Amino acid sequence: MLHWYNRCYKRPRLLSLSHRVRGRRRGLALVLTAATTIGLLTACAVGPDYVRPKAEAPGTYKEIGNWKQAEPQDHVIRGAWWEIFNNPELNTLEEQINISNQNVAAAEAQFRQALALVQVARAGYFPTVTAGASATRALRSENAGVGNPGTSGTTINDYLAPLTASWAIDVWGRVRRLVEAGTASAQASAATLESVRLLTQAQVALDYFQLRTLDAQKKLLDDTTIAYQTSLKLTQNRYASGIASRADVLQAETLLKSTQAQAIDIGVQRAQLEHAIALLLGKPASLFSIPVVPLGALPPAVPVGVPSELLERRPDIAAAERNMAAANAQIGVAKAAFYPTVTLNGSAGFESSDLSNWLTWPSRFWSLGAGISEAVFEGGLRRAQTAAARAAYDATVASYRQTVLAAFQQVEDNLAALRILEGEAQVQDGAVQAARQSVTVALNQYKAGTVNYLTVIVVQAQSLNNEITALAIQGRRMTAAVNLIQALGGGWSASELAEKR
User: Which CATH number do you get for residue 221?
Assistant: First the structure.
């Protein structure tokens, strides 16, 4: 009897349980095999692989002429480029930009945002897993138990603790292209940050040297005022002696007052430049000041290098190039929409109508599944999105090439400015020396009574104008040197960007 019982009941039951376990294992193995196979398919990514378009680079700069390179022969500027001017005060100002300039701070925050968006894109590689718990108590309608009248009008408890997972497999490389686009955009943001930083640094240097030029002009006008006061005293003495006329005294006073007015007017421009530098340094204008020191420096020899290096030295060019890479990846994202979406889903947890046995083993449940979906009609949406992505890429290519052309123009402009202004400065220095001698001769002739005071006034005004012009040329040369360094990319290099893959 016991033998019959074991044969008819126990063994079949054990065999049935074994078959169910094996069946579940087979199902799980099939799902895992499918996931592995689909995972292997993710090695492909639709859309064009990025290749940087060519941009024409001349073999040499046309305007380099006899421009003297820096010694020793270093073909690029490195690091703190402003140190080439050997001005400690300028060095101090430049070092404050990274600390306080708000435009740099905003660009740095945008760069951090771009890095975070890369992580957002990379999250698409992984499944989404959610967990939760819920408890409900519900009364079933008495009219809802047509098929199962035993449950009509009863109150039901449901305690649920599920863990669910969903994974959209990146079969066609959509996520990979999104990560590629995000990475390129982050690199473009990093280059934009350096562009903002370089622009701010250059503007501080430009304002600083313009301010120092005004200081030099103010000193010139103050010195000239002293000389004109001496001339006025001489004319007043000659008038008192009956040698000079009242008109001579009035002309001397006019020249003196107009020069003093020019000296006072410089204060307006200087104050505005000082305030501009304070803004660039992120400081209140009312709490910032720069002591008066006349400009006495000449532009340094700037290492220019060869034109082909400019593509790697300008952060704005690097940003434009990385924007091209991002736009190219977006084409792949748009093309991936033409292919079906493959999703794996799974859930497991505990469910019970009785709180006391909610988290017990018999209350467990689980499910695994896979799905595939494809849009069969969307009114040409995907084709339009792909066309838009290709057009956006073409726009970035044109923008990149335009940026390169503008960069070469800026270098050529400032090379020409430095070369021409150097020759102009030499000629102007000769004019200054001749004007100074003319003043001395005219004053001696006036004292001797051979010329009237109008002659003295004319040569004094000419001398002052030539002195001011010489200082203006010196300031323009310093400005051109700063602009040239900025056009060359400062001390930056594209190698400072993160890896492109």
Answer: 1.20.1600.10
CA dihedral 374, 375, 376, 379 (to 10 degrees): -160
Q: Tokens 């503007």 label which residue?
A: 203
Where residue 376 falls among pLDDT bands split at 50, 70, 90? confident
- Reading the block at residue 272, the tokens are 């505005």
The beta strand positions in 221-284, using DSSP E, are none
**Residue scoring higher pLDDT (442 or 5):** 442
**CA–CA dist 493, 490 (Å, integer):** 9
Residue pair 16/8 in contact (Cβ under 8 Å)? The answer is: no
Other C-beta atoms lying within 10 Å of the C-beta of residue 166:
14
Taking all residues of the chain, what is their mean pLDDT, rounded to a whole number?
A: 86
Per-residue pLDDT for 11 more than 50? Answer: no
% of the chain surpassing 90 pLDDT: 63
Following DSSP, what letter does each residue of 62-127 receive, concatenated? Answer: GGGTTPPPPSS--SS--S-GGGGG--HHHHHHHHTHHHH-HHHHHHHHHHHHHHHHHHHHHGGGS-
> In terms of DSSP bridges, do strands 155-169 and 341-352 run parallel, antiparallel, or are they unpaired?
antiparallel
What residue type is assigned to position 219 of the chain?
Answer: K
DSSP state of 496: G
User: Which are the contacts of 432, defined by CB distance < 8 A and separation ≥ 6?
Assistant: 463, 466, 467, 470
- Quote the longest CA-to-CA distance of the chain: 159
> For residue 38, is it within any domain?
no
Tallying the residues shown for the chain, one arrives at: 501
CA 258 remoteness from chain centre: 47
* Three-class secondary structure of residue 344 per DSSP: strand
Quote the strand ranges of 336-382, DSSP E: 341-352, 364-373
Rounded to 5 degrees, φ, ψ at 3 are -60, -45
Q: Domain tally for the chain?
A: 1
In a domain, 320, yes or no: yes
Distance, in Å, from the CA atom of 61 to the CA atom of 107, rounded to the nearest integer, reads: 32
For residue 497, the model assigns a pLDDT of 79
Query: Six-digit token pair at 133?
Result: 């718990």
Helical H segments across 281-356, by residue range? 310-313, 315-336
The whole-number pLDDT of residue 432 equals 96
Name the residue range of residue 270's domain. Answer: 49-126+172-339+380-496
CA dist 293 and 209 (Å) reads 10
What are the pLDDT digits (tens) for 305-354?
A: 888 888 889 999 999 999 999 999 999 999 999 999 899 999 999 999 88
Position with higher pLDDT, 297 vs 197: 197
pLDDT given for residue 348 in this prediction: 93
Report the pLDDT value the prediction gives residue 325, as an integer from 0 to 100.
94
In whole angstroms, give the CA distance from residue 285 to residue 263. Answer: 22
Examine residue 204 and state whether it is found in any structural domain, yes or no.
Answer: yes
Indicate if the pLDDT at residue 501 is higher than 50. no
| C-alpha angle 410-412-418 in degrees, rounded to nearest 5 | 100
Structural domain contains residue 161: no
CB atoms within 10 A of CB 115: 17
Structure tokens at 340: 């079906």
3-state helix, strand, coil split of the chain in percent (to 5) is 65, 10, 25
